[in-house]
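User: Fold this, then the next.

Assistant: Folding the first:
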Amino acid sequence: MIRTNLSTRPFYNERIVRLFLLGLLVLVIGATAFNVTRVLRYTRSDTQLSQQAARDESRAAELRLSAVRLRATVDPKQIEFTSLEARRANDLIDRRTFSWTEIFNLFESTLPDDVRITSFHSKIEKDQIVLTITIVARGAEDVSAFLDNMERTGVFADVGGKLEEHVNEQGQLVISLETVYRPAVGHTAGRLTGGTPR
């Protein structure tokens, strides 16, 4: 058995082991630093959010208290007066939306050749525009055609509520009728071309 060392310098794997341990140590230190920075950031963010929530709750309590104080200062009679004034203003606005040009254009497109309007006036009843129209026609068929054309427009309701009907000296039918006019805001809801809505 040979007991001598044949190598001039024995080789041990100490350097590789040291490099591995050093790399492992650097990796552990990096991971620890990353975790510490994350913990600090989340702690700071949590503190800021808690402070913000406390401020918001305080502000909400102030607003609730202010609302209670404002409700206590409201006068019911003043509210009722303001509501009445608002209804009057809305009534005036509704009257302004009544367009004479639009209504006469509708009549022109709905009137048969043998029917003419002799008088016309409007009034507001129960938030509706009620029209009273007096027409002269040669026969009942012409009156019926006029009423059908008015219904087809879509802006006249309850067409044909006759108030008065008689025959004049020339043998023509004179009829006064009422209808409800429902225009869209500022304009009528429909126009006719050749007796049909478009």
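Now the next one, as you asked:
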Amino acid sequence: MRVRPLQRLVDSAAFNTTIIVVIVANAVVLGLQTYPRAVDDYGDALDLLNGLFLAVFVVELALRILSYGSRPLNFFKSGWNVFDFVVISAAFVPGIRESSTLLRLVRLARVVRIVRLLPDVRVLLIGVFHSLPPLVSMTLLTTVILYVYGMVGWLLFGDEIPEDWGNIGEAMLTMFILLTLENFPTYMDRAMEVHPWSWIFFVSFVLVAAFVVLNVLIGIVLNSMEEAREIERRRALGIGIGEGPPAPIAERIAILRAALDELEHELAAKPER
């Protein structure tokens, strides 16, 4: 499959770098508009720059859509492309253009587009998104642990230290703070004044919650990051998730395709004798 020149352009590092520079400049202008003095002195110039940035983004969006050739609707198969289209086209919606607050929010959303142009950040966001389902289970497990330990803490210290353990809500809040190990010695010392063996309660909570739960959480995030890298790698090779041959074979096919495209390009450039 021959790569179209326009597709090669929008996928090039120079093109993406240019768009990143424009997005950063747009962010700087938006930041300057938060200063009343800058708005008073350079308000018209800042508005003009915002208009120029929007024009650049419209041209970029048009080029990306046209790069799909005879199948421009394939542009909308990517969630990132849909996000770009919505964010850029929203500036032309009549209701938004008349509202300064909504218009500024739309301009701010355009700055967020820098994420799709930075592969490492994109992988990070995909990893966070894929870690959400197992994190729900982890949240439920952590809540159960906080509830159980909170009830035990209320039974042990509720009468003597009511400000920290007076009811289940305060007890669970105290346990949540202890989950971060914040002021851990202070809470334990006060509890040991009530019951000298209270250290068993606190040490067991740290072992179960702070160490086990947090380590499992880290494992979930790391696993999701690996999945995100695999998704990005397959996207770069043009392979759908769950499709295609194993990774090593897919990489060889991609290399062969690139070599064939290069050979076809060289043959087409040679003059006929």
